[in-house]
């Protein structure tokens, strides 16, 4: 699955909104990272990742988001994730519960686990 992004900027309020549509995975993360970091160079006080149409996220996608969040925080600005679907939200909950713990043997094992959890969350919601 592909990923498309749409960037809108509200200069008056210093807000950049990046809408994600599709899958943020190993294949799409490098292009997304490049685009996101270009947006961050704009120096807006708030960057919002709108995940309303994000269908899947892997560890590669999470890595890009956390790297960007760290950069934004170091610059004294903020980043937020909005409109997360329940199965995407589940991934963030899992990582929040295990912030500094390496519990997976490798990246593939983590991605497999995240994939199962997102599928399970989708099924529970019908």
How would you portray this structure in words?
This protein is of the alpha/beta class and 126 residues long. It has a single domain, classed as 2-Layer Sandwich (Transcription Regulator spoIIAA). Helices cover 47% and strands 28% of the residues. The protein is built from four helices and four strands. A four-stranded mixed beta sheet has the order 1-2-3-4, with helices on both faces. The longest helix is centred in the last third of the chain and has 19 residues. The relative contact order is 0.15. The mean pLDDT is 87.
Structural class: alpha/beta
Number of strands: 4
Poorly predicted parts: none
Mean pLDDT: 87
User: Major sheet: order of its strands?
Assistant: 1-2-3-4
Beta-strand percent range: 25-35%
End-to-end separation: 21 Å
| Number of contiguous helices | 4
Mind telling me the C-alpha Rg?
A: 15 Å
Name given to the CATH homologous superfamily: STAS domain
Order of helices and strands: EEHEHEHH
Shape: globular
**For this structure, what is the CATH class?**
Alpha Beta
> Helix content range of the residues, please?
40-55%
CATH topology: Transcription Regulator spoIIAA
